[in-house]
Amino acid sequence: MGWAIALHGGAGPIPNSLPKERREPREAALRYCLAIGVEALKANLPALDVVELVVRELENNPFFNAGKGSVLTANGTVEMEASIMDGKTKSCGAVSGLSTVVNAVSLARLVMEKTPHVYLGFDGAEAFAREQGVETVDASHFVTPENNERLNLAKEADRVQVDYTPAVQKEILVETLTADGDSQIGTVGCVAVDNSGNLATATSTGGLVNKMVGRIGDTPVIGAGTYANSLCAVSATGVGEAIIKATVARDVAALMEYKGLSLEEAAKYVIHESVPKGNAGLVAVSAKGEVAMEFNTFGMFRACATEDGYSEIAIWPSSSVQE
Amino acid sequence: MGRWAIAVHGGAGVDPNLPAQRQDEAKQLLTRCLNLGISSLQSSLSAIDVVELVVRELESDPFFNSGRGSALTENGTVEMEASIMDGPKRRCGAVSGLTTVKNPVSLARLVMDKSPHSYLAFSGAEAFAKQQGVVMVDNDYFVTEENLGMLKLAKEANAIVFDYRIPSLGLGSCSAGAGAAIDNGLQMNGLPISIYAPETVGCVVVDSEGRCAAATSTGGLMNKMIGRIGDSPLIGSGTYACNICAVSCTGEGEAIIRGTLARDVAAVMEYKGLGLQDAIDFVVKERLDEGKAGMIAVSSNGEVAYGFNTTGMFRGCATEDGFMEVGIWE
């Protein structure tokens, strides 16, 4: 027993050659956000509050693809999405198509707590944000020169892809679009279990760079990118289309529930058996305070800590940076 | 060669006082759609084509809450959603927030087949529809007189609920679900809701080659907030298919999402080794918590099954052995 927390800043083909100036700010952000989460758990904040708090921090960091660092659609606009789920009650909230809301994860929480619905999208979600008085900014706030550059790179890469059928594109999209190793991964997520054994998860993203307007990925889809129950909490990242069809987050929990696997066994099974290689990663915690961080991509920005003093911040499989 | 099987539904949660004539109309429509599916299967159409065809038929008929006849948002408009999934490679497509697409299920199929994504919504989905050249109509086409009346009642009931008085409107003559929702105190997700119109439609099929497919389509809740997304377009919640089964759910969307109902039918078969009917019974009992819903399913070896914990579910099913059933109540 005891608290545990894990967070991610996206999984994908992150090259070992990732320049120091791109690596270090992300490592620093992971360390900073982890410390905030750990402190909140030590102060006995409920897991649900902790995951919202940590994901807000990740959204506010421009180095990840969520909130402030969200990537652009094919039209050069921002459409953010997020979801949150409470393990004990299985209450959940989700949002898609946000263009002005500073912290998508907090709007997802408001959908969960203040509406009779679970999921609001696009204009309706924006109207709800205004009704609730959450912080909003002009949509142009998210359209940074860096984001435009990423979009242009992606559009060029797309042109190379005309020989592929759309069905193939769904599997290879990330591999080809991230030629600079940096352009679009970076969905963020956090899972936590508090001292009372309450589990919660939250995930937030700007989606896929150069995505079609209106595209919804796995992040707001309960059971795909995000899931929590009384056994575990899971947040996934990677190729949304692959994560949706493998119902990644729910399947980790389902394998524990229906097949009696441990958290680690369940996470390994889903990532290595249910999703094509190079497509996904996840972080998860169990009610017992275990942590799993599994991915079948080249790397995943991730961090975790448990009450017994274990802590890890890492990007690639074998290069963990011990605290 | 395996044996084909098919099931269709027109929503779970039926007004116990539904007039006999409406019951007959519902059964006739379900029978017509079932026969369409059966004849397609007999002429060797693949499962994915059959579920799309049957759901198109259900969408085009104004009787149920999908396509024409969709429930209305609080603004009196229609926002439709649908999804489709092909079992063999678990390919899937979904759409939300459609306002002018005549057959949402076919746009979901195009998202699956012709876009690099799995799920498109609102203006982006509408733009994709135009680009693909699907049939589009004015939003008014979807709005029926009856639903305008339902919306009015829903708004009145809402006002009463927010006054913390027990609603006692005479809704017996209204469409399915209204009466039941009132009886339950109009609660959903712990909060008072509008009247919900749970007549989402769906179809699941296994063809004679053992391929499973599922499709679900809906107008959502009567008097829903603009932008509300329910379970129907969510893979794993309202719709799921893999190489062992195909499932389509209907009922309280929020409860179905929390329970990842469609995936869980498949998951208990896959991970717990249950048979199709046992899997459905398990999921209805263990995964629905306080929620109300129903589902239809087929397995790759040609079984068909359904389950619900609502007052009735409009459904029909048939197998290659000659079994055929169309029903509303338990």
Chain oligomer state: heterodimer
Helix fraction bin of chain A: 25-40%
CATH topology of chain B: Glutamine Phosphoribosylpyrophosphate, subunit 1, domain 1
What is the number of beta strands of chain A? 13
> Low-confidence segments of chain A, ≥5 residues, pLDDT <50?
160-183, 319-323
CATH superfamily of chain A: (Glycosyl)asparaginase
Strand content of chain B: 15-25%
Largest interface summary: A-B, 50 and 55 residues
Q: How many distinct folded domains of chain A?
A: 1
Bin the helical content of chain B: 25-40%
CATH topology of chain A: Glutamine Phosphoribosylpyrophosphate, subunit 1, domain 1
Query: Class of chain B in CATH?
Result: Alpha Beta
In the residues of chain B, how many domains can be counted?
Answer: 1
Q: What is the arithmetic mean of pLDDT of chain B?
A: 88
Protein name (chain A): beta-aspartyl-peptidase
Catalytic activity (chain A): Cleavage of a beta-linked Asp residue from the N-terminus of a polypeptide
EC number (chain A): 3.4.19.5
Active site (chain A): 187
What's the structural blueprint in terms of helices and strands?
The complex is a heterodimer of chains A (323) and B (330).
Chain A: E1 4-12, H1 20-42, H2 47-60, E2 80-86, E3 92-98, H3 104-114, E4 119-121, H4 122-132, H5 145-160, H6 166-177, E5 188-193, E6 199-205, E7 226-228, E8 232-238, H7 240-245, H8 248-259, H9 263-274, E9 280-286, E10 291-295, E11 299-306, E12 311-314, E13 321-322
Helix pairs in contact in A: 1-2, 2-3, 8-9
Chain B: E1 5-12, H1 20-42, H2 47-60, E2 80-86, E3 91-98, H3 104-114, E4 119-121, H4 122-132, H5 145-162, H6 178-183, E5 187-188, E6 191-192, E7 201-206, E8 212-218, E9 228-229, E10 239-241, E11 245-251, H7 253-258, H8 261-272, H9 276-286, E12 293-299, E13 304-308, E14 313-319, E15 324-327
Parallel strand pairs in B: 3-4
Antiparallel strand pairs in B: 1-7, 1-14, 2-3, 2-8, 5-6, 7-8, 10-11, 11-12, 12-13, 14-15
Site (Cleavage) (chain B): 199-200
EC number (chain B): 3.4.19.5
Protein name (chain B): beta-aspartyl-peptidase
